[in-house]
Amino acid sequence: MMAEVAAYVCSHVFNNTRPVLLVSRAGGDWQCLCGGDHEVGEVPNVVGLNHLMERDVTLREIINLPDDWEAERASQKDPWIRRRGQAED
Ligand SMILES: [Zn+2]
C-alpha cells in the first residue's frame, strides 16, 4: 500500500463547507484549497489526500499533477485547468 499522502487544506475544505477548486503543488506539497478568501494568518490544516479523494472523486482527475503545477476549476462540475506554477525567484 502507498503511504498516506498529506494535503494542506484551508479551513473551508477542512470543515467541508466549500469544495476543493484550487490544487497547488508548489514546492512538491499538495495544497487543496477552496480558491476563496481566507483570514490573514490562517493556519492550514493537514488531512490525508486519499480522504479528500474519497469525499470528492473528481479530485482523482489531477492525481498525476506534477510538482510546481497547479490546477483550478470554476466549480465541481467544471473541468480542471492545469498550469505551471509561478517560479519563485
Ligand atoms: Zn477556503
Task: Walk me through this protein's architecture.
With 89 residues, this protein is α+β, with helices and mostly antiparallel strands. The protein is built from two helices and six strands; from the N terminus they run E-H-E-E-E-H-E-E. Helix content is 12%, strand content 26%. A six-stranded mixed β-sheet has the order 4-1-3-2-5-6. A hairpin with an 8-residue loop joins strand 5 (69-72) and strand 6. It has one domain (6-78). Zinc ion binds at residues 10-12, 18, 33-34, 36, 38. Residues 10-12, 18, 33-34, 36, 38 line the site of zinc ion.
Q: What layout of secondary structure does this protein have?
A:
Elements (H helix, E strand, L loop, with lengths): L5 E4 L1 H4 L7 E3 L5 E4 L11 E4 H7 L13 E4 L8 E4 L5
Parallel strand pairs: 1-3
Antiparallel strand pairs: 1-4, 2-3, 2-5, 5-6
The protein binds zinc ion.
The site of zinc ion has 8 residues, from helix 1.
Number of strands: 6
Helix content: 10-25%
Mean pLDDT: 93
Determine the strand fraction and express it as a percent band: 25-35%
Quickly count the domains: 1
Unique ligands: zinc ion
- Rounded to an integer, what's the Rg over CA atoms? 12 Å
**Low-confidence blocks of residues:** none
Give the strand order of the largest sheet, numbering strands 1, 2, ... along the chain.
4-1-3-2-5-6
**Largest beta-sheet characterization:** 6 strands, mixed
The helix-and-strand class reads: alpha+beta
Q: Please work out how many helical segments DSSP would assign.
A: 2
Span of the ends, CA to CA: 37 Å
Query: Overall 3D geometry?
Result: globular
Element pattern in H and E: EHEEEHEE
